[in-house]
Specification:
The structure is a single chain. By secondary structure, this protein is an alpha+beta fold. Helices cover about 25% and strands about 35% of the residues. It folds into two domains: about 160 residues, 3-Layer(aba) Sandwich (Rossmann fold), CATH 3.40.50; about 150 residues, Hnrnp arginine n-methyltransferase1 (Distorted Sandwich), CATH 2.70.160.11. The strands form four sheets. Strands 6, 9, 10, 11, 13, 14 and 15 form a seven-stranded antiparallel beta sheet that branches. The chain has a five-stranded parallel beta sheet with strand order 3-2-1-4-5, with helices on both faces. A three-stranded antiparallel beta sheet has the order 12-16-17. The longest helix has 16 residues. The N terminus and C terminus are likely disordered.
Length: about 300
């Protein structure tokens, strides 16, 4: 096992990282305001943590940020280890937790989540290094590494994970990409339904379901014919990510968090008609750059069956 000294990222090392490389891997403090005020994110996490964390339990959070999810856990748990690499966030989280009830139950540790292990087995692991389509952030890489190292040290019994599962899907859509009369086809992150001018041309196509207790994928691929349900101009693919934070088996329900959708413009718009199909192909690695996913998209229009019969 690496020593604690090897796990810690110093202030000097962190300050060498250009700010343009921080987003997605090393998010600065001033960006966390958006997450803290996002009720669609905060409320389901609080509910899932209340549901899963046992009274007096031990909890590990990987990528703790401002410490808010560790704070939720500390209301029930006896001990929480909150691991954060960014030294500015470590200082902030310690300060914030000192102002909140049961914050003294949380130990904020400046370390790399890719190498850190708690000093003893834990009941629950919270990890919210999530990004839509599992790009940019290292949720899957971190949890694969954690599971391998944890079982090697503590045995085969894994803790419960929050989230428990994630579902990835893609949908064909028409998005005008006009802003004040200026056309600019740029990638867009937004809550589902926030653009009334958006028009979905197909059903959502699920291309991966991730169970964190099981084998965690390293890559994603889709090569599928998708039926067009509504005629229009196909300008973008919409990537959707739904996280199942916890399952309430007695009630037959799940605590869910639907992340902001990612709308990726196509290089060339396609005119499509209801009844025909469009072939979608992409392949990308988990945690890749947004640009890598966009460059991997191949979308082609396929002839309608009656057109093929006439040609024959």
């Amino acid at each position: 096992m690496p020593s604690q000294q090897l796990q810690v990222c110093s202030d000097a090392e962190a300050e060498k990282i250009p700010e343009e490389l921080l987003l997605g891997q090393f998010i600065p403090l001033h960006y966390h305001f958006n997450m803290l005020q996002d009720r669609a994110r905060m409320d389901p996490f609080r509910e899932a943590i209340d549901c899963v964390v046992p009274p007096g339990g031990t909890i590990l959070e990987l990528g703790g940020g401002t410490g808010v999810l560790s704070y939720f856990a500390a209301q029930t748990a006896a001990r929480v280890w909150c691991v954060e690499r960014n030294p500015a966030l470590v200082r902030a989280a310690r300060g914030f937790l000192s102002q909140n009830q049961h914050g003294d139950r949380v130990q904020v540790i400046q370390a790399d989540a890719m190498t850190y292990l708690p000093p003893e087995p834990v009941d629950v692991v919270i990890c919210e290094m999530l990004h839509v389509a599992m790009i940019r952030e290292k949720q899957l890489e971190v949890l694969r590494s954690f599971k391998e190292r944890y079982t090697a040290k503590f045995g085969p019994q894994l803790p419960q994970f929050i989230p428990d599962a994630s579902l990835l899907a893609v949908q064909l859509m028409n998005q005008d990409f006009e802003f004040g009369g200026y056309r600019a086809p740029v990638p867009m992150f937004s809550p589902p339904g926030s653009h009334p001018e958006s028009c979905y041309l197909s059903d959502a196509q699920i291309y991966s379901t991730i169970y964190y207790q099981g084998d965690i994928p390293t890559d994603f691929e889709l090569n599928q014919s998708v039926p067009i349900l509504k005629s229009g101009t196909l300008t973008a693919l919409c990537f959707l990510t739904k996280n199942f934070l916890a399952f309430q088996l007695a009630a037959g329900q799940a605590v869910q968090w639907m992340m902001h959708q990612l709308i990726l413009p196509l290089a060339e718009p396609l005119e499509v008609r209801a009844g025909e199909t469009v072939q979608i192909h992409f392949a990308y690695a988990a945690g890749c750059r947004l640009e890598d996913l966009q460059q991997a998209l191949v979308v082609t229009r396929q002839a309608m069956p009656n057109m093929l019969r006439r040609a024959a």
